[in-house]
Amino acid sequence: MKISLIGTGVYGLAIASCLAKKNHDITMWSESKDKIKEYNETKQLKSLVASYDLPSNIKVIGSMQDALVKPDIVFITCSSKYVSSVAKDMLPFFENDTPVCIASKGIEEKSGKLLSNIIKEILPTKNVAVISGPTFAIDVINNEPVALAIAGTNNKTIETVIKALSGPTLKLRKSSDLIGIQICGSVKNIIAIASGILAGLGYGESTQAFLINESLHDIKHLIRLLKGKGRTVLSFAGVGDLLMTSMSKKSRNYSFGYIIGSSKDHNEVEKYLDNTTVEGYYTLKTIINLLNSKNIDIPLIFLINDIVDGKKDPHLLADFLINKE
Fold first, then answer.
1. Do 131 and 68 reside in the same domain of the chain?
2. Residues 237/179, Cβ–Cβ less than 8 Å
3. Which is nearest to 152 in space by CA: 222, 81, 102?
4. What is the average per-residue pLDDT within 20-35?
């Protein structure tokens, strides 16, 4: 298959590494001249957590037009906040009904829309899929067994993605809940921040598990209010990803929360944000706007937001869990 990946971040590298094993013809698009130069000189792409030697069936280019010449499928792997602008850049060169698989996690910051809706609104395709689940990029690159949930606008698109991506170390499990998978993929980053806060305060795994269990009820409630299926919290995209992200120092969201809990200097929090992309921080602001716009009250998320903003004491998080009905 001829496959295009839009984005060359670490998760894009992870997806590309899986696709490359199946001998697809892969083109990765990047707007970074430095990354393209690095590829041309070394046939490598480096990130904060991995350095990946690209096999011969992967090429990296800076031309969106060339990247979109008759692909069988396009994977979106850029940060969620860039999905809208990237889709607009794709539009002049995009062929009608080309399948698009969104590997980015989150909700569009400015509009509060699901990424699948952003893609359907901007690009002329009805064939959209989303993948999400407990997969740190470095583990995927290192060929550890991992799994993802996949949902889409139609079964043909889902099967196309599975055919392209699944392999000996990557399992994809179908879901019928396009909404729920994306909500899970977004909110779990917020809960990971909260879990890191608890760890930074000195609380152990039992308290973190307490948080995770309580948050599952809130995520299920939110999914149902947004017309998704509550049972999706039990999928790879739900409890699987939530457990992984909320209990591991590999997670930047968890690490960000740990700094909030362990440091009395708010400048340390700002410094971390300046030097690290923390998806959960931006997702938190988006979810808060979404909840306010729809008059949805989820006290845990509002409390996490106040703690992150320095308006409330982090110790209130543990008190909230004990007193939550």
1. yes
2. no
3. 102
4. 90
Cβ 280 vs Cβ 193: under 8 Å: yes
Phi, psi (deg, nearest 5) at residue 149: -90, 150
Give yes or no for a contact between 174 and 222, defined as CB atoms under 8 angstroms apart: no
Structural domain harbouring 67: 2-174
Q: Show which of 123, 154, 174 is a domain's final residue.
A: 174
3-state secondary structure of 4: strand
DSSP state of 237: I
d(CA 84, CA 65): 17
Amino acid identity at 34: D
Q: Cα separation of 3 and 15, whole Å?
A: 11
Write the pLDDT tens digit of every residue in 126-147: 999 999 999 998 899 889 999 9
- Specify the range with the lowest mean pLDDT, choosing from 105-114, 122-131, 181-190, 308-317: 105-114
Average per-residue pLDDT in the chain?
Answer: 91
Strands (E), the chain: 2-6, 25-29, 44-46, 51-53, 58-61, 73-76, 100-102, 128-132, 146-152, 170-174
Q: Which residues of 222-260 are buried (b: 16+ CB within 10 A; e: fewer)?
A: bbbeeebbbebbebbbbbbbbbbbbbbeebbbbbbbbbb
Are 242 and 290 in a shared domain?
yes
Q: What is the domain-level CATH number for residue 273? A: 1.10.1040.10
Q: pLDDT at position 50, please?
A: 58
Residue finishing a domain among 174, 201, 228: 174
What is the model's pTM?
A: 0.91
Find out whether 191 and 211 touch, Cβ atoms under 8 Å. yes
| Three-state SS at 19 | helix
DSSP annotation of 274 reads H
- C-alpha distances out from residue 312 to 132, 188, 269, 305, Å: 32, 21, 14, 9
- pLDDT value at position 110? 77
Question: Given the DSSP bridges, would you call strands 58-61 and 51-53 parallel, antiparallel or unpaired?
Answer: unpaired
Domain assignment present for residue 157? The answer is: yes
